[in-house]
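PROTEIN DESIGN WORKSHEET
SECTION A - STRUCTURE
LENGTH: 463
TOKENS:
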């Protein structure tokens, strides 16, 4: 099978699978999981060790095939690890449900007590995590011939781990003072409490302080404010059954769906803008681009457009144009968004550093202590080291989100004062045989080779 043939087959497969995912979100009563299983069964030749390893070898030789390989590799791994992942995820979700219920209490002391009790009652979670990763490595070695997926991804994609690490460390340093200043304004502790706790961060995230100040949000007003005139292909579906906001690109550029819970308030608005950023990017690409350039491109690219759109909420004039909150609240809302966006940015940097640390040969005790140190230094809170496992994740995902944030900040700096339609050619035309838009191919956007990204970071996030 040639790469061209495989590309077309993957595109046909994706349309079928994503159509079922759309049905699951929009018409759950009509969703048939058997149909989804059948689509995977029809492509059983893809889910074989030899086939995947041939793709890996091809990706090492030919950079143009990496997106296809990454997609099929991770789909294969998900199938191989399905039962093991389901067990651990179920355990994790049980803990998180109990945690969410506990941290919603307004009393600082009760929140602290809840977390302490949860750690005591779920003392085996750290052990579960260690066992899960040992079993995971063993299973991957048996089924793929590689025990560490993170190392395989880094090697196959020639990821510059050292440079990404330096970028993350620099961002944490550059944004430290402003984050600390804004956090003291956001988390208002009682006078006798000297230090915020980790759960205080979660409480603020779950309890939007501006919720009552918001009016209903009109999506047409958002598109007008963005200067994006061609939004007829972006369908926004609000539903209470959506677990988290997400965008789904089925047939580019003609069919892009955004799924989000019905809501209002600051978190709803930033989530909606983030997903609209994805939608604008997907709906502006040319239909003739191959799927490995569009849906399967490096995820940091589409995240860059999502974060760049989200970052408009730091612009007073843009916020005022949305007419979602009275002018008297706008300055305070911008401070809150700035703190929350910094929290998100610093979190993805931490998750990348932890993924790298986990990839190295460390004992779980040293990983636990390292996680506690990094979380406490990053967020200025006391963190119980027993919960370190909540922050250990996938290198590929964290690397993509770091790139997305850095590029998103740079795009916001680059597009300052400009409408989307004015720069459409450079933003949405891809370099030949690449998933990289022309704008991200500019020298100043190459954060792996230069420090120009720091200009945007300083502009938005320094004290």
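SECTION B - SEQUENCE
RESIDUE ASSIGNMENT:
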């Amino acid at each position: 099978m040639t790469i061209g043939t495989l590309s077309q087959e993957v595109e046909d497969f994706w349309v079928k699978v994503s159509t079922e995912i759309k049905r699951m979100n929009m018409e759950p009563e009509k969703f048939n999981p058997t149909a989804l299983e059948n689509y995977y069964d029809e492509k059983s030749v893809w889910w074989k060790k030899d086939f995947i390893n041939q793709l890996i070898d091809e990706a090492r030789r030919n950079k143009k095939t990496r997106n296809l390989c990454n997609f099929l590799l991770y789909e294969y791994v998900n199938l191989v690890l399905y039962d093991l992942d389901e067990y651990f995820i179920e355990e994790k979700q049980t803990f998180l449900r109990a945690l969410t219920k506990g941290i919603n209490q307004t009393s600082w002391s009760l929140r602290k007590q809840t977390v302490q009790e949860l750690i005591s009652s779920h003392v085996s979670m750290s052990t579960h995590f260690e066992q899960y990763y040992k079993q995971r490595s063993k299973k991957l070695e048996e089924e793929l011939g590689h025990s560490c997926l993170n190392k395989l991804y880094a090697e196959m994609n020639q990821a510059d781990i050292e440079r990404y690490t330096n970028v993350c460390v620099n961002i944490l340093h550059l944004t430290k003072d402003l984050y600390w200043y804004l956090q003291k304004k956001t988390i208002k502790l009682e006078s006798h409490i000297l230090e915020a706790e980790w759960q205080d961060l979660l409480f603020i995230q779950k309890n939007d302080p501006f919720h009552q100040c918001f009016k209903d949000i009109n999506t047409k007003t958002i598109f007008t404010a963005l200067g994006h005139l061609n939004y007829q292909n972006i369908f926004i579906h609000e539903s209470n059954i959506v677990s988290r906001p997400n965008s789904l690109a089925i047939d580019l550029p003609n069919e892009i769906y955004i799924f989000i819970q019905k809501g209002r308030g600051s978190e709803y608005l930033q989530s909606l803008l983030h997903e609209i950023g994805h939608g604008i990017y997907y709906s502006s690409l040319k239909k003739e681009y191959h799927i490995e350039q569009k849906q399967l491109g490096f995820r940091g690219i589409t995240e860059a457009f999502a974060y760049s759109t989200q970052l408009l909420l730091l612009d007073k004039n843009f916020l005022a144009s949305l007419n979602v909150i009275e002018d008297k609240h706008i300055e305070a809302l911008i401070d809150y968004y700035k703190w929350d966006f910094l929290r998100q940015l610093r979190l993805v940097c931490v998750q990348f550093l932890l993924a790298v640390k986990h990839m190295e040969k460390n004992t779980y005790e040293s990983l636990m202590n390292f996680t506690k140190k990094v979380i406490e230094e990053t967020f200025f809170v006391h963190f119980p080291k027993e919960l370190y496992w909540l922050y250990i994740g996938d290198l590929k995902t964290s690397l993509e989100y770091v790139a997305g944030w850095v590029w998103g900040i740079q795009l916001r700096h680059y597009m300052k004062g400009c409408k989307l339609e004015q720069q459409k050619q450079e933003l949405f035309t891809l370099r030949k045989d690449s998933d990289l838009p022309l704008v991200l191919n500019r020298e100043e956007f190459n954060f792996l080779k230069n420090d120009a990204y720091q200009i945007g970071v300083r502009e938005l996030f320094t004290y």
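SECTION C - NOTES
The longest helix spans residues 327-359.
The chain has a mean pLDDT of 90.
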